[in-house]
Amino acid sequence: MPTEKEFYDVVGKTRGWSFTDLKVVSDPTPFDYFEVVARLIAPTTRWLDLGCGSCSGLEALVLRSKAFVGVDRSPFMVEKAREALAPGPANFRLQVGDSLTVDLEGQFGLITARHAPFDPAAVVSLLEDGGTFLTQQVEADDKQALKDAFGRRPGWDEGERNSTRYERAFRNLGLDPEVRAYLVEEFYQTEEDLLFLLQNTPIVPDFGTIPGDHETFLRYVGENRTARGIRATSSRSLLTVYKENRR
């Protein structure tokens, strides 16, 4: 079974992590990540995005900041991000790097990490006084029925909620995170949409390579098909950390 990094390296290279054509709707959620990020950006904001991927959904927001630095460990995704931001403003910089061991000069008023791992201590050191860190994470009970149907889950998914682990780490660093979360039903419009998700994410490890996967997939689709689409669940957490101005 590949490690998390190996999986994302391979899929990022071959697929490009483009989910823009995926047709899925969900029940109402208490927050929208991109709307929250938009409220945190001002013309004076220096913004660091860890695990920036292709910067999908961030194009307009980058223009609103004073400076933007995007870091992703996949050179293929960094190239995709350059294409997405081209010709682009003069205020952005993209670089290949690991979000867990990022080494940058200076500090930032806003640091974000969407579905990407990070080191809380490094985040605190890179966050300027008065700055904000925001992360949205996929939680362990995301797509639980799908995982149960196939009887396997990613090897690096230890079952503990990411928000719990990160909240504890920030509290140990003397900060007081705010945590919000949701678990809602979502509906994939066609079998092809759900198939694309499973082929391009690590929800079900080695999907399609193990005997019986095709039959299990069809059985899941049959049991979860509704008038709104094929039912699944989405579990997300939003953790916000404010670094108080100590001057």
What is the end-to-end distance?
A: 49 Å
Count of domain modules: 1
Coarse shape? globular
**CATH topological fold name:** Rossmann fold
Report the count of strand segments.
9
Portion in helices: 25-40%
* Mean of residue pLDDT values: 88
- Count the DSSP helices: 9
Low-confidence stretches: 1-17
Q: Tell me the CATH superfamily.
A: Vaccinia Virus protein VP39
SSE string = HEHEHEHEEHEHHEHHEE
* Percent range for β-strand residues: 25-35%
Q: Report the CATH C-level class.
A: Alpha Beta
What would you call the structural class?
Answer: alpha/beta
Overview of the molecule:
By secondary structure, the chain is an alpha/beta fold. The protein has one domain: Rossmann fold (3-Layer(aba) Sandwich). It contains 9 helices and 9 strands. It is globular and about 55 Å long. The model is unreliable at about 1-15 (pLDDT under 50).
Short description:
With 247 residues, the chain is an alpha/beta fold. The protein has helices at 4-15, 33-40, 59-64, 75-85, 120-126, 144-150, 162-172, 191-200, 213-224; strands at 24-26, 46-50, 67-72, 92-96, 108-114, 127-138, 178-188, 225-226, 229-242.
